[in-house]
């Protein structure tokens, strides 16, 4: 499959600064089409949603079209697309709302593999109502979190399973469809953190069986805000705290205050940009599936090149080992600090940050404490030159 990375790079203005970016898991650089969409939304009349004047109509069109774009991206129902400030904020919002349905002695399952934004909101909500938190562990040697690991902590009292679709620390991609099915068999809902997952592969929320699927557009070339794709029939049964005059319609009942219209316009543009990276014709959804197949092939090829280069370097441990994973590598060094490596690379125009990246439980389970490691994350705009610069800089650092 042909993938023109040079053409992609030419449309990302920030790359002109000459930095080799391996910080995609923390947020991607922005294509010109997204920047222009945000500017255009702000340059035209813009008001609260309505139909009487141009500003109202523009706002309404942005929201409607952005929901359609995200629904196409995720294979989800448009009426279940909820926008918020961030995936973390949305997790807290839904945790508070779902906790209203829990009773003392009910159980909530979280995993050691997850980002803290898909752990702490559930733990804190459970504590407030007297629910029990049960932890699904992963194997630190393989990086794998299996459906059996989750089944081991399910019971007839389980009300929610919160699980990542891809670890932002080591890239592990659990078998979400099987985990969701196990949660449903136990009578529980499944809340999936897809923030890292949605940046690297075509998502099909229906096939995954997720009741809620969270993602963040700034991880896939868009602006900074959060999204949850919820099952409309599940959302219909939930009653969030909200202002009295605000609508009770779905999905708007879960969106508090005025939406960031300009950012939603940017998100629609990001989805359209991604759809243009494939070779398929047809619907936007078809083009997105084709595009992500090309992106995956491109990113996995670069990841393999990095892994081969790292194998020749002394004292390097790669903690990303799962069979199914995103192009994300976490490294530590036998006798060198990963923070020192981060700064050394940065001085040479290579951005690969060091830390635990809010995946504290996973970092601790790997024996890395709160320090974590050096994370190398690939994006659609990385190329062979980036990889070569990374490997040369790491070689020089370790020498």
Automatic annotation (TrEMBL):
Tree of life domain: Bacteria
One Pfam match: Aminotran_5
InterPro entries listed in its UniProt record: Aminotrans_V_dom, Cys_dSase-rel, PyrdxlP-dep_Trfase, PyrdxlP-dep_Trfase_major, PyrdxlP-dep_Trfase_small
Domain Aminotransferase class V: 22-390
Coiled-coil regions listed in the entry: none
Stated name of the protein: Cysteine desulfurase-like protein
Organism: Saccharopolyspora thermophila
């Amino acid at each position: 499959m042909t993938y023109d990375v040079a053409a992609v790079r030419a449309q990302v203005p920030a790359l002109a600064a000459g930095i080799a970016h391996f910080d995609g898991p923390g947020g991607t650089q922005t294509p010109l089409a997204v920047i222009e969409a945000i500017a255009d939304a702000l340059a035209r009349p813009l008001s609260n949603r309505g139909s009487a004047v141009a500003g109202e109509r523009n706002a309404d069109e942005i929201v409607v079209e952005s929901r359609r774009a995200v629904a196409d991206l995720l294979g989800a129902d448009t009426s279940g697309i909820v926008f918020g400030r961030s995936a973390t904020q949305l997790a807290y919002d839904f945790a508070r709302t779902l906790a209203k349905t829990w009773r003392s002695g009910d159980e909530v399952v979280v995993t050691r593999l997850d980002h803290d934004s898909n752990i702490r909101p559930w733990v804190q909500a459970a504590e407030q109502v007297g629910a029990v938190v049960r932890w699904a562990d992963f194997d630190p040697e393989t990086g794998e979190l299996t459906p059996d690991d989750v089944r081991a902590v399910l019971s007839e009292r389980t009300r929610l399973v919160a699980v990542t679709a891809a670890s932002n620390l080591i890239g592990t991609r659990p078998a979400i469809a099987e985990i969701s099915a196990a949660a449903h068999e136990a009578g529980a809902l499944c809340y999936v953190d897809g923030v890292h997952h949605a940046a690297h592969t075509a998502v099909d929320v229906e096939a995954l069986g997720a009741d809620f699927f969270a993602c963040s557009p700034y991880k896939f070339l868009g602006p900074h805000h959060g999204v949850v794709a919820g099952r409309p029939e599940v959302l219909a049964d939930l009653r969030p705290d909200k202002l009295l005059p605000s609508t009770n319609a779905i999905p708007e009942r879960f969106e508090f205050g005025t939406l960031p219209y300009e950012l939603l316009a940017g998100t629609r543009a990001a989805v359209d940009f991604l759809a243009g990276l494939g070779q398929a014709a047809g619907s936007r959804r078809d083009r997105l599936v084709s595009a992500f197949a090309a992106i995956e092939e491109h990113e996995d090829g670069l990841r393999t090149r990095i892994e081969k280069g790292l194998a020749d370097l002394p004292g390097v441990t790669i903690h990303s080992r799962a069979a199914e994973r995103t192009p994300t590598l976490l490294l530590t060094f036998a006798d060198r600090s990963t923070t020192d490596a981060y700064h050394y690379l940065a001085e040479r125009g290579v951005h690969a940050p060091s830390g635990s990246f809010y995946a504290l439980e996973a970092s601790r389970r790997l024996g890395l404490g709160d320090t974590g490691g050096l994370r190398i994350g690939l994006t659609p705009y990385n190329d062979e030159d980036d990889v070569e610069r990374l490997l040369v800089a790491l070689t020089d650092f370790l020498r």
